[in-house]
Design a protein that fits this description.
This protein is an alpha+beta fold. It has five helices and six strands, in the order ααββαββββαα.
Amino acid sequence: MKKDKVNRKRITVLVLVTLILLGAIFWILKFELDTKIKSNTETHLIEQTEAVSAVFYTKLDDQLIMLESQTRYFQDIDLTDYNALKNTIMSTKGIGAFKTIGVADSSGATMNYNGKSSGNIYLRDYYKTAMNGENAISSSTITDEDGEEVLVLAVPIVKNNGVAGIIYGTFTKSTLDSIMNTVNFSKENESMI
């Protein structure tokens, strides 16, 4: 009987030690698995973000190229001549997925192909960048003359080896969303995000 009691105690201790070891092993494996999943998820999200960003900026670069091609119409006219500007700007209507395309002179005064002014954009970041001879994308959306939030792309109009003004195009949120929807990632990848 005494021997049975000792054996039961040993078995109980052995079972308890085994359960504690199994619990510790389970906890260690869970911790390692969680760490691995977190690391893989972060890596995947970074890769997906970089891929989406690259495609998005490539598509915006394509739109900037379209605007660059339109600058040739404005190189030989006086950007402050309302009638010449109005006649010339109509030739830009319908290019790309722009809501509107406009031209700004060196003072920031604007006119779009609807014959409207978008106000003076002299202090806008995209205007300043384009007037320095570089293609630009607004750093954030702005509210256009129709009260709609738009992203602005701008390219310089070069005359006589200097920048005389800019041509700009606006994208609405829905157009930007449709550009983003052209990035086809599988449902499996979307579920990771």
